[in-house]
Design a protein that fits this description.
ten-stranded mixed beta sheet, 394 residues, seven-stranded antiparallel beta sheet, single chain, alpha+beta, 25% helix
């Protein structure tokens, strides 16, 4: 294939990806479509087949001992998060998790030559590659720095926008302190086993309130503030969980070896996913591997697992209402009780809910509310009006 033919083929693939994202309603902002058209993803993924590069999929770019350390995120998810950022020309932006540099280049296109983009990563080889690749596509002014993203990057603060392209389980002080008042922080936040890309606005009193959220999945933050979450492979299962009094990873294999039955719950209960993350139960992420060792294309499920009661059940999925039970029925009965609580609250869907963040030392969390406590902040589940949801339906 000649160079001209290759370039034409790449352009066709790139535009087909963009048009597909527009048809699905993932890209609704013409400026974001223009950024995807202007920044060629294949130059950030050398050696990867063009059909993979311009397929709507995440591509792992660094692994160690079977654990994924860095990737180029799924284009649809990148488009969603760029939309959540509400980027404008001349803004100053910090990205935590440089990856290939592709997302930083998209941001730089959106903020323009008078904007300022800084991206940070914890590995020197990732930083070197991202620096070279952003410069090669015409954005040598993107600052790619080596450091621990948990501390942000104070040298270029304050920022109009901060975005994480790695999953976090807490909202760290540096991110809030380096953000201008009334500005946005977008991050994949792990709540229970579920992860949501949430756009938080920093309020004058130092708290943050979500403006939008979307289910997602990302490689976790590394460094000083890495999540306590454990990743286990147990006889064909991949499990992500935070150990606790009622969730002992050492007993999980015995529990998962005891499937009892599949039952159905109303399909709409998938919309209770965020609500269920705040219930205080020992939750985990479960996925199967195929016979050749690859992740099951059907995807993973979340589960309520209690190794004290030796009981578990998967949660309703976005595409299936069927759930699998393990061991005794204790977990399933608790799940039914939680869903009854959700129903009594009016079955709030994902779009009906917001997350309020109260950093340590900034305010007092409400009592009798659905909350998640983390070392640096309390997360409070609220309705669209900002009023906390109660721990018991009235």
């Amino acid at each position: 294939m000649t160079n001209d033919a290759t370039d034409a083929h790449l352009a066709t693939l790139r535009h087909a990806l963009i048009e597909g994202l527009q048809r699905r309603g993932v890209i609704t902002d013409a400026r974001i479509a223009e950024a995807f058209a202007a920044v060629p993803r294949h130059l950030f993924l050398p050696g990867v087949a063009p059909e993979r590069v311009y397929g709507d999929q995440a591509i792992i770019t660094k692994e160690q001992d079977g654990l994924s350390l860095s990737s180029s995120s799924q284009p649809a998810m990148m488009a969603i998060m760029l939309g959540q950022l509400l980027l404008e020309p001349r803004q100053r932006v910090l990205e935590i998790g440089a990856g290939t540099g592709y997302n930083a280049a998209l941001i730089r296109h959106l903020v323009g030559p008078d904007g300022r983009v800084t991206t940070i990563d914890v590995d020197d080889d990732i930083v070197a590659a991202a620096r070279a690749q952003t410069a090669a596509v015409g954005y040598p002014d993107v600052r790619v720095v080596l450091g621990d993203g948990g501390y942000g990057h104070a040298a270029d603060a304050p920022y109009d926008r901060i975005i994480l392209t790695v999953g976090a389980s807490d909202l760290l002080p540096a991110w809030r302190e380096q953000l201008r008042p009334d500005s946005l922080l977008v991050l994949p936040l792990s709540l229970g086993p579920g992860m949501f890309s949430i756009a938080f606005r920093l309020l004058p009193n130092g708290t943050l309130i979500s403006e939008s959220l979307s289910p997602c999945g990302f490689i976790r933050l590394r460094g000083t503030f890495a999540s306590a979450e454990q990743f286990l492979t147990l006889d064909g299962w991949d499990v992500a969980c935070e150990p606790g009094p009622r969730l002992d990873p050492a007993r999980l294999l015995a529990l998962l070896a005891q499937p009892t039955e599949e039952v159905a719950l109303p399909a709409e209960t998938a919309e209770a996913q965020l609500f269920l993350a705040f219930i205080g139960e020992p939750l985990a992420g479960l996925s199967r591997r195929t016979a050749d060792g690859h992740p099951d294309p059907a995807g993973g499920r979340q589960a309520l697992l209690d190794t004290v009661a030796m009981s578990g059940c998967t949660l309703p999925g976005w595409h299936s209402a069927a759930i699998t039970c393990f061991g005794s029925p204790v977990a399933y009965e608790r799940l039914r009780a939680h869903l009854a609580h959700w129903a009594a609250l009016g079955r709030p869907r994902l779009g009906d809910l917001r997350v309020l963040v109260i950093p340590r030392g900034v305010g007092t969390p409400p009592t009798a509310a659905l909350t998640i406590e983390r070392p640096h902040a309390t997360f409070v589940l609220t309705g669209r009006d900002g009023r906390p949801l109660p721990t018991h339906a009235t």
